[in-house]
Amino acid sequence: MRNDRTTAQPMTRLCDEMDNQSRLLSSRLFEKHRQVEVVLNRSVLAWKETEKSKKRSSGSSSLSETAHSHAVQVCEIVAVHKMEDDGQDNTDTERRQKKAKQLSTLYPHAFTVSYVRRTRQQQWRCSDVTFQCANQGLCQQWIQVINEQLSLLANRPKSLLVYINPYGGKRRGKRIYKQKVAPLFRRACISADVIVTERANHARDHLKTEANLDKYDGVVCVGGDGMFSEILHGLVTRTQTDSGVDQNQPDAELVPCSLHIGIIPAGSTDCICFATVGTNDPVTSALHIIVGDSQPMDVCSVHHDDVFLRYSVSLLGYGFYGDLLTDSERKRWLGPARYDLSGVKTFLSHNYYEGTISFLPAENNMGTPRDKLQCRSGCCVCQHKPSSKDNKQWEMSEEKEKSDKDGSSGWSVIRGKFIAINGASMSCACPRSPKGLSPSAHLADGTTDLILVRKCSRLDFLRHLLRHTNKEDQFDHSFVEVHRVSKFRFQPRHHELVSLEDLSESPKKTGFSPICSAQTTCNYSTAHSSWTCDGEILPHTAIQVSVQCQLIRLFARGIEEQQQQCVFEDPCTLWALEPSTH
Ligand SMILES: Nc1ncnc2c1ncn2[C@@H]1O[C@H](COP(=O)(O)OP(=O)(O)OP(=O)(O)O)[C@@H](O)[C@H]1O
């Protein structure tokens, strides 16, 4: 048996919880023919074998003792059912129903606890453990007490509104929901109203005007990032309309949405799910919804000349990423391979764009874009969201901003030629770029990381891009700068062609020079790029962006650290550390 006294500090906490809280129930029951001591307090359900199995170690006469123990946090229990109720779910397979029937005949006084089990790479599964009791009364008592504890978990949703995009990703949305998600919701006694969308923006429009949101505790999106964006726009717009806030006003303080959003990944790009859950797995996402996890998230509002354009939660990109996305839209028929092809094409084009970027640096933020502090579950930077004092300072700088039209007060202004301008409101990590565009960006600290890549040689830009895939710091180049900001604006140098003089300054010849010279005409014809806003192309290049701190909440908890995971994965330690009161 492991005894991690020195390494598993958080486990000691879980152990203390078990010690310090009075037991609600404790019995000797049977699990798979073995007698186990089962203990429940307000936060933990734990069980361990009471019988020491005696076995001879091979080649020696000494006896070894084994005592398997397990612990489950009450908040991660999905449901508890009497054994005979198991297998009644009409979506269960015939085999499962048959097995449940056999077991209930064998063990008439048994109950099953379904709980979250962590597997590899942030994935969660729903596991069952069945306990046999000596009599019906004891069985009922266990079910009742566990259910009472579950009913105290006020953040768990009871009623959900689900939108399924049947055409997202590989068109598996409906099947994923029916086979993997709906049975779990049923087991957890969550009712769900399901709408299969019939056209683009169906979900957005329904949320904006029709949906009776009072009935629900959350909205679930079955689809990819595009579908999530629809839900985001529908819900945020509806909340502002209901609260009388005009979202066309760039300075309006938006009202946070009261309903949580759950994402069941079923698209070809599921970056938002990956960034907030750590994996793209429908079962894991469904379990995060069931346990009522809550991950606040910043939303950027994007305006052009005081007209609202869109909301963004991940990447606002001009130049390289804007061009890449614009080109890939024309190649949709290629499927996900279009991103690779457009990526190579855009890289070889090596365009740069002139303009002025102004930004308001984030004040009182605990982190910086290069501090290597990654946003993880329970992130301390995000928990330190701007206080009212910080808001006052914010308002003061807003005042200054108004009184100082050239934006020099509090605002920084940079004019130049840029290959890329990116506003990353989250790391934008994905399997292809595990660190993401801004590895230390935070989901909910009220800021976005503004990355400016100035005109440089193609080879230098390639070096910069490659650093997104290795351990080197992608911001450690003379032509790259990164700022953590709460607002920014961009004004392109409209209708101006790149001068011949500029071309003479163009990148030093590199190994790619033949292509470089072939592309010089490209620089002439492209005075401006487009902004990509979470994958959508914006119709304007001059934009104002304002981060709305923690405007929405997802049914997620951020990416768990390995250590956070092991707290719950190694319950043996709980019993090992506990004073032997059993
Ligand atoms: N019934 C529908 N018919 C056509 N389009 C739809 C329908 N429902 C939703 N959409 C649109 O499909 C787009 C893509 O959906 P989704 O994000 O779920 O899949 P995806 O494969 O990840 O696509 P993308 O990579 O473009 O985001 C969304 O922008 C959404 O507005």
Give your account of this protein's structure:
It is a single chain. The model is unreliable at 1-12, 55-66, 388-407, 496-525 and 565-582 (pLDDT under 50). The protein is an alpha+beta fold and 582 residues long. Helix content is 32%, strand content 27%. The chain has three domains: 9-155 and 562-577, Pleckstrin-homology domain (PH domain)/Phosphotyrosine-binding domain (PTB) (PH-domain like, Roll); 158-293, 3-Layer(aba) Sandwich (Rossmann fold); 299-377 and 409-549, Tumour Suppressor Smad4 (Sandwich), CATH 2.60.200.40. A hairpin with a 5-residue loop joins strand 8 and strand 9. Bound molecules: adenosine-5'-triphosphate. Adenosine-5'-triphosphate binds next to helix 6.
- State the distance separating the first and last CA atoms: 17 Å
The shape is elongated
CATH class of the largest domain: Mainly Beta
| Biggest sheet record | 10 strands, antiparallel
Mean pLDDT: 82
Give the total of domains.
Answer: 3
The low-confidence runs, each spanning 5 or more residues with pLDDT under 50, are 1-12, 55-66, 388-407, 496-525, 565-582
The assigned CATH architecture of the largest domain is Sandwich
- Tell me the helix content: 25-40%
Oligomer: single chain
**How many alpha or pi helices?**
18
Which distinct ligands sit in these coordinates?
adenosine-5'-triphosphate
The overall strand count is 23
Indicate the structural class.
alpha+beta
Strand content: 25-35%
- CA radius of gyration is 28 Å
CATH fold call of the largest domain = Tumour Suppressor Smad4
Organism: Dicentrarchus labrax
GO cellular component, one term: membrane
InterPro entries: ATP-NAD_kinase_N, CERK_C, CERK_PH, Diacylglycerol_kinase_cat_dom, Lipid_Phosphate_FormReg, NAD/diacylglycerol_kinase_sf
Protein name: Ceramide kinase
